[in-house]
Amino acid sequence: MHTLEELNKNRLPKHVAIIMDGNGRWAKERGKLRIFGHQNGVEAVRKTVENCAKLQIQFLTLYAFSTENWNRPKIEVETLMKLLVSSLRKELKTLNKNNIKLSAIGNIDSLPSKAQKELAEVISKTSKNTGMTLTLALSYGSREEIKIAVKEIALKVKNNIISPENIDEAVINTHLYTHFLPDVDLLIRTSGEHRISNFLLWQIAYAELYFIDVFWPDFREHHLVEAILSYQNRERRFGKTSEQLN
Ligand code: FPP
């Protein structure tokens, strides 16, 4: 089994993003309720955060709850929110011990007030940390993010704060939820699905995509290492030819 030590530390992805998928199917396979899958998913989150911090990955972004997830049964949504609150409470110490700074992207105002409060507290209490930035995508939808950015820019044009000729990629970047993050280098999706599901559509323009046939609660160190090894074996050309890169 692969271990963290095998990785070339000079060629690590700066920003890793993960679509944590398959909690429900993991539970179903065991004849349990979907909630059981989410509970076990939390352990995979803890381990992955710890491993990325050990590797000194600078940015880790996790798709924890999408705008579409609000359509799930009420009891499942409530349990996911409770899990979020209890995990934040439990993990504050560990985040600080590992110098991890927490942040969040998405429509945070739409979360239950308890979740908003806990999130704000952990974000504030880890804000001085200088190691990895862990970003939770909560009530996040990429199209909504782009729509909001377009509206804000349009308003600035209307009020003569910015002229249309000056709208470039950098301007768009500064209006996205992710304005404080670099582009994604490696996007991992678990559970065998080969979809992006409205996650960071703008930010993954040049990301390497890695799909793995393992349900999220089973995702462990060696899976993360396999994903990064695959990333390290790829040639990132950003539109250029191999010869130009050499
Ligand atoms: C996808 O599995 C998973 C989610 C929608 C939620 C992810 C949440 C956690 C791992 C737990 C809480 C998170 C934090 C950050 C503490 P699915 O339910 O879509 O699985 P399925 O595709 O098999 O139905």
Automatic annotation (TrEMBL):
Protein name: Isoprenyl transferase
Subunit: Homodimer.
HAMAP family in alphabetical order: ISPT
One annotated GO biological process: polyprenol biosynthetic process
Binding-site residues, Mg(2+): D21, E208
Xref: NCBIfam families: PRK14830.1 (NF011405), uppS (TIGR00055)
Gene3D superfamilies found in the cross-reference section: Decaprenyl diphosphate synthase-like
Organism in which the protein naturally occurs: Flagellimonas maritima
